[in-house]
Design goal:
By secondary structure, the chain is mostly helical. It has helices at residues 3-25, 28-44, 46-52, 55-84, 95-105, 109-120, 125-132, 136-156.
Length: 167
C-alpha cells in the first residue's frame, strides 16, 4: 500500500472504525485514542496490510486489543491500590532546597552547569571540564563566580551558603 493509498484508506475508514470502537467501549475519547494508535501501527505495516485483504479489520482488531489492554492496566492499578491503599503523603520540598534552586536559576547557564556537576553530581573539576568541553581553569572560574553569586543570593534568604553542596 503506497502512502497515497494509505491516506485514502485512512480517510475512508477512520470515522467508521472510531464509531465501531466507541460502540464497543462506550468511551469516545478512549476510542479515538486507540484507533489513532492502531492507524499508526498500520502505517508502519502498510506493505503487509495490502496483502491481508482487509486492512480495516486489522485496524479494528488492533484498536480493540489496545482498548482491552488499557482496561487490564487500569484494573491492575485499581487492584494494587485496593491491596496497598493510597500512596503515602509525600512532603513538599524543603524551603532551603527551593531557595537554592531559585538561586541556581538566576546564575548564568555555564556557571549553573558547573555548580550542579561539581557539587550535586560530585564530579571532580577535571570531569566537569571534560563534560562541558571547557578548560579546567575556566571551570574553576565558573565555580568560584557561581559560588560567590549563590552565597550572595542565599544570604538574602537567610540560608547558610553551604546548603548548595549538601555538606
Amino acid at each position: 500500500m503506497s502512502p497515497e493509498e494509505f491516506d485514502a484508506f485512512y480517510l475512508a475508514a477512520v470515522h467508521r472504525v472510531t464509531g465501531q470502537i466507541y460502540a464497543m467501549t462506550g468511551n469516545l475519547s478512549e476510542a479515538e485514542d486507540v484507533v489513532q494508535e492502531a492507524f499508526i501501527r498500520a502505517w508502519k505495516r502498510r506493505a503487509e496490510l495490502s496483502a491481508t485483504g482487509s486492512p480495516e479489520a486489522w485496524v479494528r482488531t488492533v484498536a480493540w486489543r489496545l482498548a482491552v489492554s488499557r482496561w487490564r492496566r487500569a484494573r491492575s492499578a485499581l487492584n494494587a491500590w485496593r491491596r496497598h491503599g493510597a500512596p503515602a503523603h509525600a512532603q513538599g520540598p524543603d524551603p532551603e532546597r527551593v531557595a537554592v534552586i531559585e538561586a541556581l536559576k538566576r546564575l548564568p547557564a555555564e556557571q549553573r552547569r558547573a555548580i550542579v556537576l561539581h557539587h550535586l553530581c560530585d564530579l571532580p573539576v577535571e570531569e566537569v571540564a571534560a563534560e562541558t568541553g571547557a578548560p579546567v581553569g575556566t571551570v574553576k572560574a565558573r565555580l568560584s563566580r557561581g559560588r560567590a553569586a549563590l552565597a550572595r543570593q542565599l544570604r538574602d534568604h537567610s540560608l547558610p551558603a553551604t546548603t548548595i553542596s549538601g555538606r
